[in-house]
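Journal club prep — side note

Before the paper discussion, L.F. wants everyone to see what a predicted structure for a comparable chain looks like in token form. Sequence:
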Amino acid sequence: HASMAERLDYLEHLMGDSADRQSRELEAVKAAHSKHAKDLQGAKAALAHQVSMAERVDLLESTVRDSCERHAKATSSALARLDAVQRRLVAVEAHGASGSGGAAAPTVAGPRPGG
């Protein structure tokens, strides 16, 4: 049989080895946790960037849509004014041709705008 001192030394050795192994395993777990936490932060940042990109695309689409609507209104208004000018010109030409008794006033060549 082993003496009490030998048995005590053996138990202390086992406890020391176990503590060293657990310490190494704990450090490995801490390192893995730190890496996972860093990866999670990166994933959160990427997701935030994607949300930001979606919001930016929505803003651009809205801006383009608003610009198109303003442009369509301005074009419609300009065409209406041009049509009114064309009608007035035709009326003046008709009045000039019938009232002058001479040569007819020059006419505007080409199709009417908007039609």
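L.F.'s comment for the group: The chain is about 85% helix and 0% strand. Keep this in mind when we get to the figures.
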